[in-house]
Every structure is written in C-alpha cells, then in structure tokens.
Amino acid sequence: MTIIGQAIGLALRGLKPIAEIQYLDYLLYALQPLSDDVATLFYRTGGQQSCPLIIRTRGHRLEGIWHSGSPMGMIINALRGMYVCVPRNMVQAVCMYNTLMQSNEPGLIIAPLNGYRLKEKLPENLVDMKLALGVPEILEAGNDITIVSYGSTLRIAQEAINIVKPLGLSCELIDVQTLLPFDIHHDILKSLKKTNRILFVDEDVPGGAAAYMFNKVMEEQGGYRYLDTAPRTITGKEHRPAYGTDGDYFSKPNAEQIADNLIDMMKE
User: Rounded distance, CA 9 to CA 31, Å?
Assistant: First the structure.
C-alpha cells in the first residue's frame, strides 16, 4: 500500500512512476488504492485529470503458495479503468512498457515469473518496439480448434498442440496480450468462425479470467452462433497452488489435460 501510495503521489505531481510489486499475490494489499483512486480518477474528474503510473509485477506458474497465484478475475474486476497487460515473455513485456510510457493512463504489467528463466532473442530495436493494446496475436494458425490464453499457459498450450498434431488435429493458438482492453477488433471471433470450436485456458481459479474471456467472446461478440461443439474452459484448481513442481503440475493446467480436452472436443 505504501509503494502504490507513493506512486500515486508521484503521478499526480506530473511524473511517470513505475512501481514494483514483487509478486502478483502481494497485489492484494494494493487493490484498494488502485481500485478507488487510480482506476476511477479519469472518470471522476470528467477526463480532466490522469494518474499515469505503471505497476510491474510477476506471477502465475512457479513454485510456492504465495509466489504462484494468478488472481486475474479479482484484478480485472477491481481495476476497470486501467490497462491490464499479460505478456508471455520479456520482449513482449518491454513492448508494453514502451507503449504505456507514451500513454497518459495507468497500467499494470504482469510478467510470467518463469519467463525470467527463458532465453530470448534480443531485438536490435527493443527500445523502440511498441504493441497495440487490446489486439490479440495468433501464435499458431490452425483450422480445427481455437485456443485462447495468455502468459505462461501459452507455452503449456503449445506443448499440448504438439501432442495432438500427430493425430491430424490443427489448433489455432491465440495470445490475448491484454485483458483490459480485450480483443477490441474481435479477432478471436474471426478465428472461431473458421474453426467452430473454442477452448479458453488460464491459471486463475474456475470462474476467473477464463470465464471473463468466455463471456467476452461467447456473449458480447456473439461467438455462440458459430459453435459446432460446446465451448470449454480449463483453469487452475480451486485452491492456492501446491508447492513444488508436482504441485504446480496438478494445481495448474498441464499439457496432457489440455490435449485430452482437444481430443474430446473433436469427438463431440
């Protein structure tokens, strides 16, 4: 709360603070000032005042009960009025920082904690790279099933795709990139019109961010019109993640679980 309070003060004084919250789970303590003060300021002042702070944190899949949380539903419902960015790697995160640095609005960037262990190619123009917020990216093209996710879970989904590929199953994998705003051009709907099957995957508890994405595509975008099979969500379990790599495997979506669902959807 102290970190966010100082960031709010700096932002209101005309500076551009980047506040560091060590783990996503600790954002609980920051939600009250972010929700009451930051996310509502532009609205409360009739567009006359902004609080352009950036919050950087990291979470999702790793090990440990307080280091592996993914309370995305709580965050996106408390912070309407802020950007919520969910990069899958660090290059993508830098693009989001560059974009928000040019904005006059507040934003939250949630890096995937295990992404710090990945080796990535360093672009020569990294300082200049930006990313359109609210526009998903198609990571793999396919014709049979659309898979929608973000962050660390995308790598698990890619493992699942490789499991079912020898069976002749063609999956389209979409990274939403930002949850607020979400798919402003309805690109996911365009994919669904092609595949007629859709699976939403994330690490939040049931009814969290996967349900939010489900609502956006099925109800707001009218995706239900193009379904050949029932749409599905795969989420984390209804508890804090268990400790260790085995706890991580069974508490969060795993590649075998996703592959089984993909096969079942094709049989339906």
Answer: 16
Q: Which two tokens stand for residue 60?
A: 């999702």
Is residue 28 within 8 Å of 21, Cβ to Cβ? no
| Residue type present at position 122 | L
Residues shown for the chain:
268
CA distance 250 to 248: 6
Q: What are phi and psi of 106, to 5 degrees?
A: -80, 150
CATH code: domain of residue 215: 3.40.50.920
- Give the separation between CA 182 and CA 213, rounded to whole angstroms: 8
Residue-wise pLDDT tens digits, 48-104:
999 999 999 998 876 677 777 889 999 999 999 999 999 999 999 999 999 999 999
Q: How many CB atoms lie under 10 A from the CB of residue 11?
A: 21
Same domain? 163 vs 200? yes
Last residue of a domain, one of 106, 128, 150: 128
What's the CATH number where 8 sits?
3.40.50.970
Q: Are 193 and 91 members of one domain?
A: no
- Give the chain's domain count: 2
pLDDT above 70 (res 193): yes
Query: Dihedrals φ, ψ of 3, to 5°?
Result: -60, -45
List the structure tokens of 264: 């079942």
The residue from 111, 128, 145 where one domain ends is 128
Rounded CA-CA distance 250/268 in Å is 25
Instruction: Note the pLDDT tens digit of each residue in 152-175.
Output: 999 999 999 999 999 999 999 999
Q: Which amino acid is at 164?
A: V
Query: Are the beta carbons of 40 and 93 closer than 8 angstroms?
Result: no
Q: pTM, whole model, 2 decimals? A: 0.94
Residue 104 to residue 106: CA distance in whole angstroms: 7
